[in-house]
Design brief:
- It holds the Pfam family SLT.
- This is Lytic transglycosylase domain-containing protein.
- It comes from Solirubrobacter deserti.
- The protein is mainly alpha-helical.
- The protein folds into 2 domains: 34 residues; 148 residues, Lysozyme.
- Helices cover 66% and strands 0% of the residues.
- It has 8 helices and no strands.
- Helix 2 packs parallel to helix 5, helix 3 crosses helix 8 and helix 4 packs across helix 5.
- The radius of gyration is 22 Å and the shape is elongated.
């Protein structure tokens, strides 16, 4: 009788251990579906090279493409949804002499160009992430108009709600929310703990 109880307890321990070993992979799978992360090595490298927050890069990629290489109806390409004309400009400014538009399908080039553009916008807008993201989505010309109008009224862009276009305002809020999620969920993978 005691052997039977001992065997039953041992069996239950084995089942419990098996269940515990499945919990972490299942948790990881759910996390990957809800908040995917790919190409973290490229993101970390570009973040370091261009002094841009890795969680911001990941959040832009997530918001733009959910980490899927695609072309939008407007013609934006790749993970960071870069317009071909913008990519041509980035190539000229960054020394990409052998760049072709097809290169935007390559994660390394797409993330490098998208991060270059984020750095450029951060510099142009004096580190203002709201204006940077609004320009990334809606274009520099529109943001410059909004900024001039706000300045004429003695206002500044401090929060996403100051963005006058709903689509761009929603985009900025989605990226900022995703950035917070990437910071808390993938700090190690993005090199934020270093």
């Amino acid at each position: 009788m005691w052997k039977r109880r001992l065997m039953l307890m041992f069996g239950l321990l084995l089942v419990g251990a098996a269940v515990l070993t499945l919990v972490e992979p299942a948790d990881h799978a759910v996390r990957e579906i809800q908040l995917p992360l790919r190409h973290e090595d490229i993101i970390r490298q570009q973040a370091a090279d261009k002094n841009v927050d890795a969680s911001l890069i990941a959040a832009v990629i997530y918001t733009e493409s959910r980490f899927r290489d695609q072309t939008s109806h407007a013609g934006a390409k790749g993970l960071m949804q870069i317009m071909p004309e913008t990519a041509d400009y980035i190539a000229r400014k960054s020394g990409g002499t052998e760049f072709t538009r097809e290169d935007l399908a390559t994660p390394q080039i797409n993330i490098a160009y998208g991060t270059w553009y984020l750095r450029y916008l951060l510099d142009k807008y004096e580190g203002n992430t709201i204006l940077t993201l609004a320009a990334y989505n809606g274009g520099e010309g529109k943001v410059d108009e909004w900024r001039a109008t706000a300045a004429a009224q003695g206002e500044k862009f401090k929060v996403a709600s100051h963005v006058p276009y709903k689509e761009t305002r929603d985009y900025v809020e989605r990226v900022l929310s995703a950035r917070a999620d990437y910071r808390s969920t993938y700090a190690t993978e993005l090199g934020l703990n270093d």
